[in-house]
Each structure stands twice: as structure tokens, then as C-alpha cells.
Write a structure and sequence with these properties.
Layout lengths: L8 H19 L9 E5 L6 H4 L8 E2 L11 E5 L5 H6 L5 E6 L5 E6 L9 H13 L6 E5 L2 H6 L10 H9 L1 H6 L4 E4 L7 H10 L5 E4 L3 E6 L2 H23 L9 H10 L5
Parallel strand pairs: 7-8
Antiparallel strand pairs: 1-3, 1-6, 2-5, 3-4, 4-5, 6-9, 8-9
Length: about 270
């Protein structure tokens, strides 16, 4: 069967970049079994021929109504699919969906009827907010970075910006490349509207949020941009926990040193 990607260089490149990120998530140990999800808004890469394609699935409810997404197209990791498989075969382990006119349902249009992630409501709610705010961000990534999830099990770390300041202080690059820090979302049932709503609130102020006892959720220009922010935060968490394993609490950069970074790199915070 001919793939929707054939002859469409830009769309193929975007899907292949997403597949590359899926491989990194697996290699880092952040995507056990079918853990984690990626959703990318590809509407700007869709041509008129794609818009005319018939659905290859029944119409399915999103669970919420999102007027900003009417007629949008998304590449989504499939539910129950593994990141390691998506990395090798992105169109067999993911699909492209079209949001219907009612803004509350979708159909799959390519390549195979692979149902998207069970956390689709959370992802699409974020994409709707991005469109409404005029954001250039096109991708959302959810994954399970080991050290960051471990730190979410320690209640004192869950206060506003406690982890942000700890992680920023471990290595200068973290503040430079994740300048908004890390938001905290209290535990909620995976895939629930409560989780989606809490995530939306935190993403007003942060590009990456930590779901307590679960994982992280990031938004970015593309899947690679979202991954990069998670990666630098994870490196800082590893440095912190490595120091603790050596028997001491790491000193970290001082407040004055971090203010110097903010000024030197023209950071927002």
C-alpha cells in the first residue's frame, strides 16, 4: 500500500524526526513497553490531496470539544504501540488523524487504522491552546524520565519552582536551554480530563511539566525541541542524584550566579 508520505518531502521529514525522537526516548530508558506519547500538529504540511482522502476509521470521540482544532491534522503515536517500534516504523505504529467539523471527534486518514494514544485529550487540549495563543509550537511529548519521576516522589520537591531552582543550579546549560523551568502537576488519573486541565494550567507558565509519580509532558517547536528540554532537565536530575549517592547534597550554582546567567543569555526568568 502506498504511504501518505511518498512524494511529500516536508511531511516525511517531520514524521521521521518524530521517529528519531521516539528512538531517543527508548534508548534513554524513558519509554518502557508502550509508555509515552508524541503528538505533532502537521496541518501546515498537509496538501489538498491529503484533505480529500477518505477516512479509514470510524468517527471517534475525543472526549472534549476543541473549536480551535477544526480541520487540523495530527501525527500521533498509536495506543499500545512501543516507542522502539515507532522509531523503526513510524507509520505502522502511529497514524495521521483529522479533526472533524464538530471539533469533538476525529477520523484516521493514514496509513493504517492505528488508534492514537489513550492520552489524546490531554495532547489535543494543549494543541488547541497553542493555536489559540498564536504559539509556533507544533509538538507535545510525554515520557517517563527515571530521575525526574523519582524526584517527584519526594513531597518537599513539589512546591512551586523548588525543583526548577534545584535543576537550574546543577549545570548552566539547564537554565539556558530550559529557561522557563519545570512546572508541577499533582497526581491525576492518566488520560483523565483532570490531568489535561491541570497540565493546561501549568503550561501557561512552563514548556515542561512534571506529572507527579508519572512522567513529564513537554511542548516544543517540534518533537526534537520538546525532547531537548526534557533531556537537559534529566541531566540535571542525574547530577543531583549522583551527588546524593556519593553522600552529599550538591552545592549548586548560587542565586547570584544564576542571575548572572539570566542577564548574560537574556533569559525570561
Amino acid at each position: 500500500m502506498k504511504s501518505i508520505l511518498e512524494g511529500r518531502t516536508a511531511l516525511r521529514a517531520e514524521v521521521e524526526k518524530t521517529a528519531e525522537v521516539a528512538g531517543y526516548l527508548w534508548q534513554n530508558g524513558w519509554a518502557e513497553r508502550n509508555g509515552g506519547n508524541i503528538t505533532v500538529n502537521v496541518t501546515h504540511l498537509v496538501d489538498n490531496d491529503i484533505r480529500q482522502l477518505p477516512a479509514i476509521s470510524e468517527q471517534r470521540p475525543i472526549g472534549i470539544t476543541l473549536p480551535a482544532l477544526r480541520g487540523c491534522y495530527f501525527y500521533c503515536k498509536g495506543t499500545g504501540k512501543r516507542m522502539r517500534d515507532l522509531a523503526r516504523q513510524p507509520m505502522e505504529n502511529g497514524s495521521i488523524i483529522r479533526i472533524q467539523e464538530d471539533c469533538a471527534s476525529y477520523v484516521i486518514i493514514a496509513d493504517q487504522p492505528v488508534l492514537p494514544t489513550s492520552e489524546l485529550p490531554s495532547h489535543l487540549a494543549v494543541h488547541a491552546r497553542l493555536i489559540e495563543s498564536g504559539s509556533p509550537y507544533k509538538a507535545t511529548v510525554h515520557t517517563h524520565p527515571i530521575e525526574l519521576v523519582a524526584m517527584s516522589h519526594h513531597r518537599p520537591f513539589l512546591g512551586k519552582d523548588v525543583l526548577t531552582n534545584i535543576l537550574w543550579s546543577m549545570i548552566p546549560e539547564t537554565k539556558a536551554f530550559c529557561p522557563l523551568g519545570l512546572g508541577i502537576v499533582p497526581y491525576a488519573l492518566p488520560g483523565s480530563n483532570a490531568l489535561a486541565e491541570s497540565t493546561l494550567r501549568e503550561l501557561e507558565d512552563y514548556d515542561v511539566v512534571l506529572w507527579e509519580k508519572h512522567g513529564v509532558f513537554a511542548k516544543g517547536l517540534d518533537a526534537m525541541d520538546a525532547f531537548d528540554q526534557i533531556d537537559v532537565l534529566s541531566k540535571s536530575a542525574k547530577i543531583y542524584l549522583s551527588a546524593k549517592a556519593m553522600g552529599f547534597v550538591p552545592e549548586g550554582m548560587t542565586e547570584a550566579q544564576m542571575k548572572e546567567m539570566t542577564a548574560a543569555f537574556h533569559l525570561p526568568r
